[in-house]
Amino acid sequence: MPRINHKASPLFESVKPLTLRSSLKSITFRLWDEELGIPVGYRPLAGIILGYTFLIVVGIAWALMALLMASVKYGHHGPR
């Protein structure tokens, strides 16, 4: 099977390959806020991720509580 690389298409001929050194440089990259038109750090993104994580945990806790309440109401064998 032939290997396909970034030189296989004229579209990608000008693209430099990603190396370990260039990937480490990406640590300093910042995100671009299109609404504000300014670069932003990763901290606001972390807050969004934590917010979604909190909602998921609350949803799981609610579902487990509903299962527990149904178990108490109907016993271990389901409704009679």
Describe this structure in words.
This protein is mainly alpha-helical and 80 residues long. It has one domain. The protein contains two helices and two strands. Strand 1 (31-33) and strand 2 (38-40) form a beta hairpin.
Class per helix and strand makeup: mainly alpha
Radius of gyration: 25 Å
- Listing every helix as H and every strand as E from the N terminus to the C terminus, the arrangement reads HEEH
* Major beta sheet, strand line-up: 1-2
When the domains are counted, the total is: 1
| Low-pLDDT residue intervals, each spanning 5 or more residues | none
Number of helices: 2
Task: Tell me about the largest β-sheet.
Answer: 2 strands, antiparallel
Distance between the first and last residues' Cα: 63 Å
Classify the helix fraction into a percent range.
Answer: 40-55%
Measured by DSSP, the beta-strand proportion falls in 5-15%
* Mean pLDDT reading: 77
Instruction: Work out the number of β strands.
Output: 2
Shape: elongated
